[in-house]
Amino acid sequence: NSTWSTWKQINHIATNLGITAGTTAGPIVTSSTGTNATLPTASTTASGVVTTGNQSWAGIKTFSSSPIVPTPASDSHAATKAYVDSVSGAIPTGRTSGDTGIGYLLYAGTTATAGRLDGGTTAPSGTTRLNYGGYLYATRLYDGGTRVAISTRSISTGSGLSGGGNLTANRTLTVDSTVIRTTGNQTLGGTKTFSSPVVVATPTGTTHATTKAYVDGNFLKSVGNNTLTGNLNMGTYKLTVGVIDPLFEINNKYYSTYAPSMTGVKEETTATISLKDFNCENVQEGSSCFYDIDFNNQEDGSDLWIFRNVIDIGENWKNLEVILTSSFRGDVWYSKLPEENKLRISVIPSSGKNDLDEISYRLTARRFDHQKWTNMPDDVESGSALVVK
Length: 389
Description:
The chain is mainly beta. Helix content is 9%, strand content 21%. The chain is built from four helices and 16 strands.
């Protein structure tokens, strides 16, 4: 009958199948003619999961329910949710309860809860915000990615600045006239000491600061050689030099000439007079001829005119010195005629008058301001004089 057949089939399975431990892939079932087989006991070496002992699992294990683990004690241990909430610095979204921990805050959702952060939407304009007892404490605040200032802080303005205040509103700082600006005209007071060279533009006005290039190119240097182009005008001041050397270039070769020195400030003028210009009318053999230098009739700007106007000729022309030289044998002399403002030169040629003969003269007199420049100067600087031993 069917009951017997069923029993028999089961009995055959028990006597004809064998089961061994197999590998980690699972138990192995094989044909056998032996007695009833017994399944091997699960162990750490078998492919099953045991409740005691250490095991290493490979592959992905997906849990349909959350596994329960103890509080972690080592760095590699799985952590409980309570442990993560107690030490994490992050604010988990939707957090409504739990311990705040030491130095950390919890998120209370949209409901304001004492001691926790909440994400209210009352200001500004529906933007999510975080509140903590009416205050938000942070070293940096950002609004839409832009860092903003903390309103309880303020900007104080020092000397030269205005426009400070707290940061509840935008502040514009203004620099007043006491601060040096990069543009515009300003008047500076006090002593300004610069640790680096001051760069200025080429001067164009009399009060402008000058550049080194302008000074080097337009003024005498105190040390070294100086080459000047143009006239040197020192006004009424004295020029103290050791040697005056007008330099001449002749056939591509240079030659020095030297100006003579003179005691006292004096003026000189020289000229020649032809003997044919002398007045010899009604002069007998052996009598004199004469020539008058009439200072009243000299052309404006001529040598004699300038000489007479820049000298201190003195009473009875005592300061006028005359040197005469003739080109002929004979007598030559001069006479001062101050009443007529004339200097008369007389000659007696020993061999008669020859129109080719001439007389040269040299007139020297003190300059009109000679008393200002004495032979004992009081403005001498050390090292500026010629040393005579």
